[in-house]
Amino acid sequence: MAEVSRIFQSVVLAPFSHKVDGVSNYHYKLYRRNRNNIINIRCCSSISTAETTKFTKTRDIPWGCETDSLENASNLQKWLSESGLPAQKMDIQRVDVGERGLVALNNIRKGEKLLFVPTELVITADSKWSNSEAGDVLKQYNIPDWPFIATYLISEASLMKSSRWSNYISALPRQPYSLLYWTRSELDRYLEASQIRERAIERINNVIGTYNDLRLRIFSKHPDLFPEEIFNIETFNWSFGILFSRLVRLPSMNGRVALVPWADMLNHNCEVKTFLDYDRSSQGIVFTTDRAYLPGEQVFISYGRKSNGELLLSYGFVPREGTNPSDSVEVSMSLKKSDKCYKEKVEALKKHGLSASECFPVQVTGWPLELMAFAYLAVSPPSMSRQFEEMAAAASNKTTSRKEIKYPEIEEEALQFVLDSCESSISKYSKFLQASGEMDLDVTNPKQLNRRVFLKQLAVDLCTSERRILYRSQYILRRRLRDIRSGELRALKLFDGLRNIFK
Ligand SMILES: C[S@@+](CC[C@H](N)C(=O)[O-])C[C@H]1O[C@@H](n2cnc3c(N)ncnc32)[C@H](O)[C@@H]1O
Fold first, then answer.
1. Longest Cα–Cα distance in the chain
2. CATH architecture designation of domain 328-490
3. What is one GO cellular-component annotation here (predicted)?
4. Residues 6+ apart with CB under 8 A from 200
């Protein structure tokens, strides 16, 4: 939900390399409404690193529910009202976008505050542990909020009815949607063209690294409090999947991260700007509507200004093409190894925390200053070596002054370099999109087929939207280059004309 996924990258305990000694293997069931069709998926999946694919004993997640279960949602609703949630103007219902969601019961005005979930009904790193001994041990280790809450959630879930959160946990999806649950071969097969594949692999490895760190440092020393049957990579994948798709950062609570039961039934809409926050006057979690809703309409919030790739990564869905104003595509750019100044340029980039290959986000509306600075550096000749440092600094977004740098003498080459990078990306997307019709011919297992159809559809939606942005950039770049070249041609003609006069 609000801007949390990126934070994870910096807070997980990830001193571990990508070497993994345990790999997860799931059996799970997915029921997914995709646009107008319901696709039913039941399959087995595994998460593995590139190097290792070791299958361990299958362990099912014994808590949570199907992603569209209304029965569990109504038990949650009942428990929340009994626990102090005020009467609501919304109800959990089956919806077209997001399977379950909150639907207006009455007219809701624009600018109205909704929800008022009391802080006692919110899960944070300060929540009371039902197993207080386990909580006390974990607190001694100074664990960051994400892995701390992930462990808390598993601990509470394992206590089933004895946990005060049992009605909440029973209404959480047993298999939340996100790229965390795609196998390595699925990521390679469907997302090869998109940079989001790298982010997904990094995230999967971070979760495994975090779990391994907790296991080595804490769980193995307290097996009575953290038994492996409960605290294992499968349950950690589940709890991190829940956090990625439901945790919110509350700006008015000093940026605390929290799981907010009931509020986390709200689905995302790219056009909506309102988000969840703590309201000091009512001392509850609220959001203020930025449009009116009629009874029966689904109410939405914003999970943050995220690209389609980021939404797929954390939440497992891709908005309809052209509906996400925050959509962007990561374009990869690399220095040429044959560059005479390759070493000096790499050195300059290194000083600013960059490497010879970098990715930059491109939007329909344009590209960042950093991308142009990297392009200038990539094409600059040895005679400009004194400017390498300045270019590398501007390519890194760490500089405080985000001044646009311009080198008219190499602008054409730099734009051509950006165009080449976009075109090489476009060809990867086109290759995938062309082949996607034939991709499933080799499927022999019908159960796998449904999953493949579903994942492929998500990948096709993502790749189509990312390629669309690149097409737009290609158009703008070609026009700029044409203008520069025709300007040069005019200047050349003028020069020739003058020369003829003086002759
Ligand atoms: C915070 S939960 C929202 C409640 C969720 N629908 C449920 O029933 O538990 C986030 C999940 O809802 C679904 N979702 C939210 N917004 C969506 C959208 N615009 N399109 C499709 N699915 C969406 C995704 O599965 C996502 O992982």
1. 99
2. Alpha-Beta Complex (3.90)
3. chloroplast
4. 179, 180, 182, 187, 191, 313
Q: Residue 102 corresponds to which tokens in the numbers above? A: 């909150």
Please state the atom number of ligand 1 nearest to the C-alpha of residue 172: 9
What residue's CA is closest to ligand 1, atom 15? 267
Ligand 1 mean position, distance from CA 64 (Å): 15
Which residue has the CA at smallest separation from atom 9 of ligand 1? 265
Task: Report which protein residue has its CA nearest ligand 1's atom 10.
Answer: 245
Chain centre distance of CA 325: 16
How far is residue 477's CA from residue 366's CA, in Å, rounded to a whole number?
10
The DSSP letter of residue 229 is T
Domain with CATH 3.90.1420.10 in the chain: 328-490
Residue 486 vs residues 280, 478, 503: alpha-carbon distances, Å: 60, 12, 25
CATH annotation of 5-315: 3.90.1410.10
Residue positions forming the annotated binding site for substrate: 246, 264, 278, 303, 315
Rounded to two decimals, what is the model's pTM? 0.86
Question: Per residue, what are the HEC states of 11-59?
Answer: HCCCCCCCCCCCCEEEEEEEEEEECCEEEEEEEEEEECCCCCCCCCCCC
What does the pLDDT look like over 364-395, one tens digit per residue?
999 999 999 999 999 999 999 999 999 999 99
Q: pLDDT tens-digit profile of 261-279?
A: 999 999 999 999 999 999 9
| Residue 389 structure tokens | 């440092």
